[in-house]
Amino acid sequence: MPTRLSKLSIGRAIDHLAAFGDTDVFPHLIEIAFLSARRDKIIDELSKLDLDLFQPAQAIETIAPKSRLGFRIVHQLPVLETILFTAAVVEIGADLEKLKRPIDEFGPFAYRFSSKPSSSLFVEDHSYRAWLEWQRAFVAKNHFTHVVLTDIADFYQRIYFHRIENILDVATTKKGINAFIKTLIKQIRSRQSYGIPVGGSASRLLAEAVLSDADSALADEGFLFTRYVDDYRLFLDGNQSPYSALAFLAEQLATSEGLSLNAQKTKLLKIDDFNEFLSSQLVDVSDEAEQSALYQLNHALYFEEEPSQEDIEKLKALNLLEVLEKELSEEMWDFGKIRAIFLGLRLTEDENAADFIVTRLDDLIPFIKEVVLLLHELPRGAPFLSEALRQAIVGQLKAGPASSVPTIRVWLMELFLRGCLEIDHRGLVEIAKDETLSNRHSLIIRGLNNDVNFFRRNKTRFDELNGFEKMAFLMGATCLPKDEFKAWVGAVKPNMTRPLDGLFCNWIASKPGELADLIRDRGENRF
Question: Residues in domain Reverse transcriptase (predicted)?
Answer without folding.
Answer: 73-282
